[in-house]
């Protein structure tokens, strides 16, 4: 994993590389970023940069023996620790029992979630864990000589899964052996032991920028321009979510949204009924995507009304639509009410409510919002 393989996050990358090159990279680092922002890929890229035999000022070379070992997560001086479960009743939960599975998981889904990882190893309802046995083994291993090079790296994914046993690691974190780097990759600051948080230097990851996600979807997932931009807007900075959205969004959502609003504004009841009929037959994910996209465009329209259209990163047809919507006579509070109603509809559809009933009720509410008349009590 090269830094250039990590989607966006240019500030974090240049910060880490800069510290390495200035010889000031802390020996205990906490990479903290929400799900899907790329903590794990960034941690692996940093490890690869540390081990690379021919690094440039900005990235590892990607071809030296060390790089290819790190890329396969098989470098002997790279120690991996992540939540695991007991493989059977006789053994403790230890990462090393699951290394082949972890390598495969990261290769397939570098932006995958811990929940997906635990599903991958069939944890079913079992809680993942990073055990005290594992902590002791980490201390032993890191105190051994290096195998291949000068440095040793511990990459611990989700220190939130350490219980109080994590305190076993404190001395190691305070005084790591020479040339040893401890990289913790976390998502929820409040779940990390305070003793660990206070002994590490935090690198915060922001949600990934829309344009970075859109670019990655185009270059790596083969999405076309329009779909990549739509999905990037919906993903809220989460690349894992973006990839999932892309898989479920097999067509352009915009024509349906545009037609729907045209019918609402021109008061075409027949068209609205047709919309409900058609979309109640679609899969739940598609319904949710469409609604989320509608909500998103309405949100843009509200923003444009107050702040102008200077910074809407939307494809041309959507941008025009949003500007038009922002200049309609519909009161801002009614636009807000629509956003609220759509969000509630998504909530109910997610919970397996009858889609047709929900969409029908939503159309009535949206129609009243557009015409500015009060919604009847039973709608
Ligand atoms: Zn290299």
Strand order of the largest sheet: 2-3-4-1-5
Mass-distribution shape: elongated
Give the CATH class of the largest domain: Alpha Beta
Question: Biggest sheet, open or closed, and with what strands and sense?
Answer: 5 strands, parallel
Strand content: 5-15%
Uncertain parts? none
Based on CA atoms alone, the radius of gyration comes out at 25 Å
**Which hetero ligands occur in this complex?**
zinc ion
Mean pLDDT: 91
Q: How many structurally independent domains? A: 3
Order of SSEs = HEHHEHHHEHEHEHHHHHHHHH
Mind explaining what this structure looks like?
The chain is an alpha/beta fold. It has three domains: 3-206, 3-Layer(aba) Sandwich (Rossmann fold); 212-247; 251-371, Zinc Finger, Delta Prime, domain 3. It contains 17 helices and five strands. The chain has helices at 10-21, 39-51, 65-71, 99-108, 114-120, 132-142, 170-174, 194-197, 210-221, 225-234, 239-248, 254-265, 269-280, 284-307, 316-326, 332-350, 355-371; strands at 28-33, 78-81, 152-157, 180-186, 201-205. Strands 2-3-4-1-5 form a five-stranded parallel beta sheet, with helices on both faces. β3 (152-157), α7 (170-174) and β4 form a beta-alpha-beta unit. The protein is elongated and about 75 Å long. The relative contact order is 0.10.
Topology:
Blueprint: H1 10-21, E1 28-33, H2 39-51, H3 65-71, E2 78-81, H4 99-108, H5 114-120, H6 132-142, E3 152-157, H7 170-174, E4 180-186, H8 194-197, E5 201-205, H9 210-221, H10 225-234, H11 239-248, H12 254-265, H13 269-280, H14 284-307, H15 316-326, H16 332-350, H17 355-371
Bound molecules: zinc ion.
């Amino acid at each position: 994993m090269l830094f250039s393989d990590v989607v966006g996050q240019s500030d974090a990358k240049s910060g880490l590389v800069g510290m390495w090159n200035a010889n000031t990279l802390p020996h205990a680092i906490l990479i903290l970023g929400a799900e899907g922002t790329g903590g794990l890929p960034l941690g692996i890229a940093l490890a690869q940069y540390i081990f690379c035999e021919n690094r440039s000022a900005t990235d590892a070379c990607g071809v030296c023996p060390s790089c290819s070992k790190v890329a396969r997560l098989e470098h002997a001086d790279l120690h991996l620790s992540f939540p695991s479960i007991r493989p059977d009743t006789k053994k403790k939960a230890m990462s090393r029992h699951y290394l082949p599975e972890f390598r495969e998981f990261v290769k397939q889904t570098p932006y995958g979630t811990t929940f997906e990882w635990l599903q991958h190893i069939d944890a079913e309802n079992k809680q993942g864990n990073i055990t005290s046995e594992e902590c002791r083994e980490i201390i032993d291993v890191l105190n051994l000589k290096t195998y291949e090079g000068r440095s040793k790296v511990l990459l611990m994914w989700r220190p939130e899964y350490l219980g109080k046993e994590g305190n076993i690691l404190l001395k190691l974190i305070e005084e790591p052996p020479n040339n040893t780097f401890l990289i913790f990759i976390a998502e929820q600051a409040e779940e990390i032991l305070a003793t660990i948080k206070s002994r590490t230097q935090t690198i915060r990851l922001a949600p990934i920028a829309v344009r970075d996600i859109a670019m990655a979807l185009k270059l790596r997932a083969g999405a076309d321009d329009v779909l990549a931009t739509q999905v990037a807007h919906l993903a809220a900075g989460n690349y894992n979510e973006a990839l999932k959205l892309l898989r479920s969004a097999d067509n352009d959502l915009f024509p349906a949204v545009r037609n729907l609003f045209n019918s609402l504004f021109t008061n075409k009841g027949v068209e609205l009924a047709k919309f409900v009929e058609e979309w109640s037959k679609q899969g739940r994910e598609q319904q949710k995507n469409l609604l989320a996209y509608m909500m998103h465009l309405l949100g843009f329209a509200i923003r444009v009304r107050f702040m102008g259209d200077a910074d809407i990163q939307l494809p041309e047809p959507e941008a025009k639509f949003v500007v038009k919507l922002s200049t309609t006579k519909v009161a801002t509070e009614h636009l807000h009410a629509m956003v609220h109603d759509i969000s509630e509809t998504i909530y109910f559809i997610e919970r397996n409510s009858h889609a047709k009933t929900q969409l029908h009720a939503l159309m009535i509410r949206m129609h009243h919002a557009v015409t500015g008349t009060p919604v009847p009590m039973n709608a």
